[in-house]
Design goal:
Layout (H helix, E strand, L loop, with lengths): L5 H8 L3 E2 L4 E2 L6 E7 L2 E8 L7 H15 L5 E8 L16 E8 L7 H14 L4 E5 L7 H5 L7 E2 L2 E2 L2 E3 L2 E5 L14 H13 L6 E7 L6 H9 L4 E6 L3 H16 L4 E6 L4 E2 L5 E2 L6 H9 L3 E4 L4 H9 L3 H4 L4 H25 L11
Parallel strand pairs: 4-5, 6-12, 6-13, 7-11, 7-12, 13-14, 14-17
Antiparallel strand pairs: 1-2, 3-4, 8-9, 10-11, 15-16
Helix pairs in contact: 3-11, 5-6, 7-8
Length: about 350
Amino acid sequence: MSSLNSENILDALRAVRDPDLNRNIVELNFVKDIKIDGKNVSFSIELTTPACPVKDEMKAQAEQIVKQTIPEIDQLNVTMTASVSKRLNMQVTPVLTGVKNTIAVASGKGGVGKSTVAVNLAVALAREGARVGLIDCDIYGPSIPLMFNINEKPQMHNQKLVPLEKYGVKVMSIGFLIDSTQAVIWRGPMASGAVKQFMTDVDWGELDYLVFDLPPGTGDIQLTIVQQIPLTGAVIVTTPQEMSLADARRGMAMFQKVNVPILGVVENMSYFISAGGERENIFDTGGGKKVAEQFKVPFIGEIPIYTKIRAGGDSGRPITDSEPQSEPAKIFTGIAKNLAAQISISNYSKQNAPIEISLGSN
């Protein structure tokens, strides 16, 4: 009797595990569309993000195991697809109804390269195949128009602003709506109101990830965002030295106080590679890992000091688009994949959390 049937294929694939979710891909319902045509077999593996850091390894493992287990297969075709998981309570949110995940990129202080990180993570996720948007929440010092080299104004459609799009990322900033030389002299509630409008009065459509590039600190704008929507989580950007870490700790404490998961810590300006190839730790070393360990959250990557990262921000073409095969771009892409993995883990754990039943008192 032939062993070439769907049940045996699924049994073989139970040996393939998602290392982040710690379950096999059959149990996770990742295996789709098994087709058997004589001795030719095809199926797809649907991951929780197109930016899965182990996508290639998982495909190779699935191919190897199925061929070894069912040697009578002549031709095997495995297709990797993705359907991004959704934060469990996003569907009941009255705003951003088409957005699956909302990510705050934050820092306790300015000058750590937070916007550079936010922009390159957004572009990296888009290059991996995700639908991505980015909101510039810094009303007083918007930098996204420069970093994307966008000089247009958004149009209106059905009484909503249509975000501008570049490098595969939908973008909105107060800088698109005012003259670049004009200072925004608003009190906190007005600035918070503008950010709220970017959520309610902009047609974002269907997105896998919407990134919020927050201003430094822990003020009105940050509170407006966490009160308006259930954030999937926050990414904290810091530099290695203690001056930056002290402010990063305050930012992390704020998110924990309002029950926003911290998806990870990113250390920017971690080191510099000299002309002689030596690593120089200009701003100290290991601070990002230390603060991540202190708060028991993931450390998802470190970014070097590299001239072309800065140049990409000034010219409006992020290095993840201009030089995607360069080492710094690969570092950003790796961090984006780590972030996507943490989002999948967070969403999976919430969706599969045990239901607490309160019996009350009679």
